[in-house]
């Protein structure tokens, strides 16, 4: 037999969790400086986060400054043109 009569039981309270990304649920809470620092640090590119590569894949392109200065390169090009 199908039960079709329903009633509210006031002693039972169902609590729903708040949505973490909802702006109106978090208005009253102040921003946590430590948490914001961690989020900003995590968003940085690896070369700004770490002093050296953390994986072998990061080793390629980690050092973006030329190993030979542009002055030496320009001098070598001028020597090739003249000689």
UniProtKB/TrEMBL annotation:
Coiled coil: none annotated. The keyword Ribonucleoprotein does not apply. Signal peptide: none annotated. GO terms for cellular component: ciliary base; cytoskeleton. It comes from the Eukaryota. It is found in: Cell projection, Cilium; Cytoplasm, Cytoskeleton. The keyword Cytoplasm applies. Pfam families: FAM183 (PF14886). Keywords: Cell projection, Cytoplasm, Cytoskeleton. Belongs to the CFAP144 family. This is Cilia and flagella associated protein 144. It comes from Sphenodon punctatus (Tuatara).
């Amino acid at each position: 037999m199908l039960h079709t009569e329903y009633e509210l039981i006031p002693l039972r309270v169902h609590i729903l969790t708040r949505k973490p990304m909802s702006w109106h649920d978090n208005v009253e809470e102040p921003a946590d400086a430590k948490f914001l620092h961690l989020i900003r640090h995590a968003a940085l590119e690896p070369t700004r986060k770490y002093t050296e590569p953390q994986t072998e894949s990061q080793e390629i392109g980690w050092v973006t400054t030329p190993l030979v200065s542009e002055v030496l390169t320009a001098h070598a090009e001028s020597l090739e043109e003249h000689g």
